[in-house]
Amino acid sequence: MSRRDDSRRDERRSGPLERLLGERGKAGPARGGDRGAGKPRGRARFDLRNRLILVGGALGLCAMALVGRAFYLQVLGNDFYRQQGDARALREIPIPTSRGMITDRNGEPLAVSTPVESIWGNPKELLKNPARLPELAKALGVPVDHLTRKLSQRSGKEFLYLKRRINPDEAHRILALKIPGVFSQREFRRFYPQGEALAHVLGFTNVDDRGQEGLELAFDDWLRGKPGAKRVIRDGAGRIIENVDLVKSAEPGQDLTLTIDRRIQYLTYRELRRALLETGASSGSAVVLDVDTGEVLAMANLPTYNPNLLGAGNPETHRNRALTDVVEPGSTMKPITVAAALKTGRVTPNTIVDTTPGWMPNGRYRITDTHNYGVLNVTGVITKSSNVGAAKLALPLPNDYYYQFVKSFGYGSKPESGFPGESAGVVLSPDRWSGTTKATMSYGYGLSATPLQIAMAYAAMANGGRLIAPTFVRGQRNEPRQVLEPEIAGEVMRMMQTVTEPGGTAKGVAILGYHVAGKTGTARKFSATGGYSNKYISLFAGVVPVKNPRFSMAVVVSEPDPAMRGYYGGLVSGPVFRNVMEGALRLMDVAPDDIDTWLAAQAAAEAKRLKANGGKPNGPVLPVDVDSAETPEELPADLPPVAAGAMLPTGGAR
């Protein structure tokens, strides 16, 4: 092997470092002495150690710069990045609060809020898992395409209600599916234990628990309360992983105590419903007032709705007819006309009024009575409900005087009860009267009023001529306004008492043991095309007992079927008044003011029993074995009393 081949083999075996060191060893000393010794000519001296130190120092400086920058971002100048992080994870969410409870005058709950759950979802997250949508749609009870379309329309949002105000158990079943992007939150739902019976007074709330009708709307700010707020941290899936702090505490709504007595309310609703079923009427309203305070004890309307149903049924059934719908009061107006005549001093209860021949001209029309009552006194005008007699009492009165007198009893003005949507009714001023207006007003045509206004006027008559604005809130007392002298009011009350006694138009309204003062009314219903139709409105308004009056009540039934029970107020509305008042007097433990009649009825019943027993008294009561005696079943303490069946008068009712 040649020497050249060996040198080539050695060169291949040596690396770059060995070659470099070899070249340095071979180089001789440089010219110019030792200063240039060991350095190759034309090249910079290469120092590996210094270069390594230089590279390490540069890397250390970079590391220190990164640490300093991180310290600045995380400690000294972290506000911006903290805000950015919070915007992605920190959320302020509301804390729901319960709505205040509504109770009746005795503390019985009428409207309560119960906790429920609402299911919501993150559309962005849900659309990432389309395979789970059919399962979610089935749990929600909606079609898949409906859910998909709903999510797609809000694909850029992070929040969407899927199903609101559901039972917590149902919500837990949906959450148990563990579908990404589906969550729940606590809300409250309103519940009305009395249902349809008190719907028009209470109203209802919407899905956001805001009052929509009735007292729920009128006192919404009082009942609603103030929701709170808290800050939380949510993860990428929207789950709350930490409660950061409380921003504002939730303030629950305040409770509201009404003047309503739920027992009397139920009686009123039940009897009004019975009247509509038995007379074929289209609608009805009834109001019960406390004479001394003006408190509304009951207010019922039909048709009605169930406020517990979402949406609360047909909107046409939502209005409180006793406050919003006006009717011509018919003959219930006659006691006010008589009071206006008595106040002038021109007539007394015994003044003679000749109603012969049972009609009188009134412009191009006639005022007629159902019978020719001949010669009556002023009391007889009320007893027989004579249209002719009322007109003859009103015509001599000055127009302005009669107008102001009617207005003083609350007709033509809002009752100011605080209930939303209440109507003022219509009483035309004298400058708008025609030649027949005053005569027709005297017996209840040519003006309009709500059932509440009629009950107010009768309560004023029973309260010594003092008119009190009605109220629905327990403890609120409105100041009375004197509109009639107590002596005249007492005279009119005694006249109205004859209506429910033998010879009156509402004998069937009498209540055993109590004197009842009232007045029937029957009015033709105004036609939308002009004039009057062949449909009727049946009314009865009254006060009980006559001595120390406690209750005033007005009943209005619209469009009764004449073929079923007739259309006179004493036949249609009178039984409602009697049955409700019988129950109310017993519930409120009102002392009888007609003991003699009650004792006579008891004696008659005893005589009848003796006659049926052959004139012999009942035999002695035999002792009973205690162990074998059957214990009678107790009735529930809150069972409402069942009034006796309606006894219809045989004729003459108006």
From TrEMBL:
Subcellular location: Cell inner membrane; Membrane
Sequence ranges assigned to domain Penicillin-binding protein dimerisation in this UniProt record: 95-244
Name of one Pfam family that matches: PBP_dimer
Keywords for this protein: Carboxypeptidase, Cell cycle, Cell division, Cell inner membrane, Cell membrane, Cell shape, Cell wall biogenesis/degradation, Hydrolase, Membrane, Peptidoglycan synthesis, Protease, Septation, Transmembrane, Transmembrane helix
Alphabetical GO biological process terms: cell wall organization; division septum assembly; FtsZ-dependent cytokinesis; peptidoglycan biosynthetic process; proteolysis; regulation of cell shape
Gene Ontology cellular component terms for the protein in this record: plasma membrane
GO molecular function annotations of the record: penicillin binding; peptidoglycan glycosyltransferase activity; serine-type D-Ala-D-Ala carboxypeptidase activity
Its EC number(s): 3.4.16.4
Gene3D superfamilies documented for this protein: 3.30.450.330, DD-peptidase/beta-lactamase superfamily (3.40.710.10), Penicillin-binding protein 2a (Domain 2) (3.90.1310.10)
Lipid bilayer topology: Single-pass membrane protein
Pathway per the UniProt entry: Cell wall biogenesis; peptidoglycan biosynthesis
Active site: 331 (acyl-ester intermediate)
Family membership noted in the UniProt record: Belongs to the transpeptidase family. FtsI subfamily.
Protein name as it appears in the record: Peptidoglycan D,D-transpeptidase FtsI
Species, as recorded: Lysobacter silvisoli
